Amino acid sequence: MDNTTVVILGVIALIVIIAIFALAGSSRRVPRVDLQPLPLEARDRYALRWDQIESRFVEAPEQAVREAEALVLALLGERRHPLAENRLPAGVRKARRETSRGSTEGMRQAMLHYRAVVEEMARMPEDREQMLEGRRETA
Question: Which pTM was predicted?
Answer without folding.
Answer: 0.67
